Amino acid sequence: xxxxxxxxxxxxxxxxxxxxxxxxxxxxxxxxxxGKKAKPDLIIALGGDGFMLHSLHSYMEKxxxxxxxxxxxxxxxxxxxxxxxxxxxxxxxxxxxIHPLKMRARTVAGKTIExxxxxxVSVLRETRQAARIRIKIDGAVRMKExxxxxxxxxTPAGSTAYNLSAGGPIxxxxxxxxxxxxxxxxxxxxxxxxxxxxEAVVKFEILEAKKxxxxxxxxxxxVRDVASVEVREDRSRKITLLFDSEHALEERIIRExxxx
Length: 260
Hints:
By secondary structure, this protein is an alpha+beta fold. It contains 5 helices and 18 strands.
């Protein structure tokens, strides 16, 4: 696909800012932080996975494809750092489409807060006491009580992030599955979580919410002292990431499963 207008956003790190300057000088791309009004049909994001996650949230409603270039550490959501032949790489890039999760949290005080998550929605204990959580799937109680540090629902793209660190499975992008993964479960000890169909509606009811306070986190945005949390996939929104053809996101997710 031919992109007529390309804009750049960059992390505050020295490497990302240096790369930003080089791309502006060499290719004439627009620096979106310059204050000038620009409506690009493609955005290049310079940084690491954390910066990419913030960028996806910032531009989610604009429906603009984003091509990331790794100027950070891990860079799972980014392409290789290389300034040479960038226009050709972008033209050949493959698109990966991600649907975010919608979190609807109700606090102990009765306030309802809705947020979107690209990687995962997690509920986490706030104090030294373990959380006690009831799990409902599509209105049916599937687990009366889980005693744990927390529990999360991940997108396929987010299955390689916190979900994987918590012992959850990696799932392919086109699997139409959502991993449900407990975090340090105490009871039941042997429960490892579940794989849910993407249209499932997950509800966490916090037992003893005042005595054992729990927070809900959509990626990096936290809601404190929740009484219940509902999570579902939001198919009305579609995020488009571009990856170099030889390192598509689907291939990275498969390769990650064979990494020691």
